[in-house]
């Protein structure tokens, strides 16, 4: 293919180059480059010309979605209405539902969730109920809903819009009055921990005290604003088993992992993490298993002793059970699909798992290497770090106690004080009384500001209120 410059002489070519360079370096060229529309702006103009989506052309139906998520990077499950500053799992789900045009608004979709999980807690069995757009047109007069295999591919549609650490696992047709919260018959949590110096049999004995119906006010965080009327909850089962598919015995003593599987009808705020905190104390031999029994006796211990809750990192909402729901795990479970949604979800999780396992193996190699380093003992003999850890007890020679907090974290206390001997938190009744006082004070402040008055300094508020009350009493008399 011949070029139009093939017959140019050397002088002509040089002249042409000078002309092009002058044009490129001219102010006019720079201005054209600056004002040239970018691809993103073109896309915005195209988007603005699109006609709005008409949801009224479709019918809606109530469905349940089973959602899995890694909660480590989120501020809990429930939205805090600040998605940019405090992102939550629910924020991501709402964004995906709206982007997919499955709902017109969350407020009008009759949305319910099975439970709230705290900041950092993960979920494998979270379930939500929601009214979504159906593939069935509004003009279709057939009163029957579409069968699952003819509906929208809800799983694939949602997963394309969700971040990597959140996935919809399945969907199910649900009755119109379905509530993910109130129709749930049981919830199962799992909590993972490494054995360390803990006695698993002692921990299992403590678990037996948790089973059954008990008042768990000493194993939760109280919020007087919620006005909880009953702290009784029913624990159906609680057991401890080795974690499957892990081999860490060569890393050192106590590096094998266990899981607590806890099944109940419902749970209080932070209940599982407070239960695990006491369970770790029992495992370390710092508390007898009977401490659990005593803390569940409200007459003996009417208010919670001051002890911290365990880490959020190892806690997973593992399963939520419902009667009558038939789950669909792929777009079409009744016809062969060479690449079903469940397989794509598996591949997605496998990729993330492989990356995390490589990180864990890297740390494990570091750990094993450092474990062979020498440690000088008080009698001038030398041990390896692994032998030093093996021989070191829960209580050190200096009297310092090691208390596991879960997630690899530990607390070291100069002198351990029994849970039953620790200071007590306010009782539920006292917390509610204080809350009512604060609420009344807030209303009084708002009334003063609304009337144009000035508030006294905070430190003088109590005496100011008393003087004001005395003046009112004198004037009325």
From TrEMBL:
One of its GO terms (molecular function) is pseudouridine synthase activity. The keyword tRNA processing applies. Residues 28-48, 399-420, 446-477 are annotated as: Disordered. Residues 206-322 form the Pseudouridine synthase I TruA alpha/beta domain. The keyword Isomerase applies. Residues 407-420 have a biased composition (Basic and acidic residues). It comes from the Eukaryota. Keywords: Isomerase, tRNA processing. Gene3D superfamilies: Pseudouridine synthase I, catalytic domain, C-terminal subdomain, Pseudouridine synthase I, catalytic domain, N-terminal subdomain. One of its GO terms (biological process) is mRNA pseudouridine synthesis. InterPro entries: PsdUridine_synth_cat_dom_sf, PsdUridine_synth_TruA, PsdUridine_synth_TruA_a/b_dom, PsdUridine_synth_TruA_C, Pus3-like, TruA/RsuA/RluB/E/F_N. CDD domains: PseudoU_synth_ScPus3. One of its GO terms (cellular component) is cytoplasm. Pfam families: PseudoU_synth_1. HAMAP family: TruA. Belongs to the tRNA pseudouridine synthase TruA family. PANTHER family: PSEUDOURIDYLATE SYNTHASE (PTHR11142), TRNA PSEUDOURIDINE(38_39) SYNTHASE (PTHR11142:SF5). This is Pseudouridine synthase I TruA alpha/beta domain-containing protein.
